[in-house]
Design goal:
The complex is a heterodimer of chains A (about 240) and B (about 140). Chain A is an alpha/beta fold. In chain A, about 40% of the residues lie in helices and about 15% in strands. Chain A has a 7-stranded mixed sheet with strand order 3-2-1-4-6-5-7, sandwiched between helices. The radius of gyration of chain A is 17 Å and the shape is globular. Chain A starts with a strand and ends in a 12-residue tail after the last helix. In chain B, α1 packs antiparallel against α2 and α3 packs across α4. By secondary structure, chain B is mainly α. Classes of the chains: A alpha/beta (about 240), B mainly alpha (about 140).
Chain lengths: ~240, ~140
């Protein structure tokens, strides 16, 4: 099996070395850090920890950084890709199980869910409301029940990678909108429990009221568009 | 339409044509973006010189004054132009993103080759999930 672990990172110099160290040399996977135009030592730290570093000359966005990793993995014949964040929130405990489920053909996308873990996950009220909202929205738009609609830790099959490498993939927020689209395209989505740390204070992607409002609007619009798209548009893995 | 109005409209159209041609000549505007402006100038000339066309249009859309018709079509034109530019900008942004990604991937590949490092597929770890080395 040709496994890859993709870690998009933007100004994660303080945490990226520890994150890479947790996964490098394990799972039989190549670790790739996509340094999304960081102003700090993110790329250097990741490289020193043993990751292959791909640097964007300027900041393109979380989704675009993920997509660069997908394109690299696809070009090198990846059979499955695990994606995780560079801020240290995601722990590697669920990675082997996620790879196993995708590689065995049990599912095409295996999402690591913090809410299925026995220890649970403590969120603030605003994030709890947001999570509940996206759970309901996904259920209404495509009939799928998910516990963690905004989890950034997931394992993807090669077939999913081939679709995500194309231009429709959101550059900024590939969240619940991508779940709706993949479900609509007929990919099988499964969830497994995963232990996660809370996002460090002030390090989350969604900071400030305006950014949160824009995020919700952007993802909702993208979800509605995804639910209207025809699977025939994506024949041969690419939007036609 | 009065003589003064016709002269003013004609001068405006001539000015638009001259500016567009000058921008194209100096390479600051591509021909593919100029057609909308040139078309607008031509439409303005038709409205000015074909008697009854503006009045007919005004009656058709239910406006009272011909100037209202001109303003409405002006606003519609600007909306169309904004949408056209937004579509072009989206395409250019997408192309730039793809180009940047391709550049980053290429740079990473050549940098690894320059340092004599093996391909990522050869560099894969042989340890199992629990960290034990698999010989």
């Amino acid at each position: 099996m040709n496994r890859y672990i993709i870690i998009p990172a933007h100004n994660e110099g303080a945490t990226i070395r520890a994150v890479v160290s947790q996964v490098v040399g394990r799972f039989g996977a190549q670790v790739v850090v996509v340094d999304d135009g960081s102003a700090d030592r993110t790329g250097g730290e990741a490289g020193a920890a043993g990751a292959l570093v791909i640097r964007h000359p300027y900041n393109l966005g979380y989704g675009a950084a993920l997509q660069t990793g997908y394109k690299h993995a696809l070009a090198h014949g990846a059979s499955a890709v695990m994606q995780m964040d560079g801020d240290g929130q995601h722990l590697p405990d669920s990675i082997e199980e996620a790879f196993g489920r995708v590689e065995s053909g049990e599912c095409d996308i295996c999402v690591s869910s913090r809410f299925l873990h026995a220890d649970g996950y403590d969120q603030g009220l605003a994030k709890r409301l947001g999570t509940a909202f996206f759970r309901v929205a996904i259920r209404l738009l495509c009939g799928l029940r998910v516990s963690d609609p905004t989890s950034g830790m997931k394992c993807l099959s090669r077939a999913v990678l081939a679709v995500f490498a194309h231009d429709f993939f959101p550059w900024d927020y590939p969240d619940a909108n991508v779940t709706v689209l993949t479900q609509r395209l007929g990919f099988r989505i499964a969830e497994i429990p995963a232990k996660m740390k809370p996002t460090p204070v002030g390090r989350g992607m969604h900071r400030g009221v305006l950014k949160i409002v824009y995020y919700v609007f952007r993802v909702c619009l993208s979800m509605v568009v995804a639910s209207l798209q025809s699977p025939r548009q994506f024949k041969n893995g690419a939007p036609q | 339409m009065t003589f003064e109005q016709r002269v003013f409209a004609s001068l405006t159209v001539v000015a638009i044509f001259l500016v567009i041609l000058s921008l194209i000549r100096r390479g600051k505007l591509r021909e593919e973006f100029s057609w909308l402006w040139l078309l607008t100038g031509a439409a303005l000339l038709l409205l000015v010189y074909i008697d009854g066309l503006l009045a007919g249009l005004t009656r058709l859309i239910g406006a009272v004054a011909p100037t209202t018709t001109l303003f409405i079509f002006g606003i519609v034109f600007l909306m169309f132009l904004s949408m056209h530019l937004a579509i072009r900008l989206s395409r250019v942004s997408n192309d730039l993103k793809n180009l940047t990604q391709a550049f980053s991937l290429h740079l990473s590949e050549t940098s690894r080759q320059a340092h004599g490092a093996p391909s990522p597929d050869d560099n894969r770890s042989t340890q199992s999930a629990d960290g034990r080395k698999q010989e």
